[in-house]
Design goal:
By secondary structure, this protein is mainly β. Helices cover 12% and strands 33% of the residues. The protein has a 7-stranded mixed beta sheet with strand order 5-4-6-1-7-10-9, covered by helices on one side. The protein has a 3-stranded antiparallel beta sheet with strand order 3-2-8, with no helix packed on it.
Length: 144
């Protein structure tokens, strides 16, 4: 599965049980990234996406997503699903907000490779940075 998250400049995701921020351009970018793939979300995120084909809200979405499917995570830890993560799409607001829930999985520290980085203007954020990290194909295997 592919994990997608939005974080602030310090890795924050939530404050007082609410998302720190949201941006329509970020959601459009994520939906474009997901073209042809199912997007899994928590019920918490359903209001952001409305009724869209290919988007499925389920409380157990991190366990139900299959290989190649995308999970947009806003309100829970990612680390428990670490072994199943193929890639990670990280949207960075490049701003610091108050946060009491932070991303608990650092793809770079876990051996993922930065495959792509691009910056684009958001609707409510002047600058959004999207980084795509991919797990090495031979992750955990010895090099010859």
């Amino acid at each position: 599965m592919i994990i997608a998250v939005c974080i602030d400049g310090r890795g924050g995701m939530l404050f007082n049980h609410r998302r720190q921020s949201q941006d329509r351009a970020q959601r459009e970018d994520l939906l474009e990234f997901c073209a042809g793939r199912r997007l899994w979300i928590a019920p918490y995120s359903a209001a952001l996406f409305g009724e869209r084909e290919g988007v499925r809200a389920d409380e157990e979405f991190l366990t139900k997503a299959e290989a190649g499917e995308v999970c947009f995570v806003e309100d829970r830890p990612v680390a428990p699903a670490a072994e199943r993560i193929e890639a990670m799409v990280v949207y960075d607001w490049d701003r610091a907000y108050p946060a009491d829930v932070h991303l608990d999985f650092d793809p770079a520290a876990e051996g993922f490779t930065l495959a792509e980085e691009r910056e684009f203007p958001g609707v409510s954020h002047e600058r959004i940075i999207r980084r795509i990290y991919e797990r090495e194909a031979d992750h955990g295997q010895e090099q010859e």
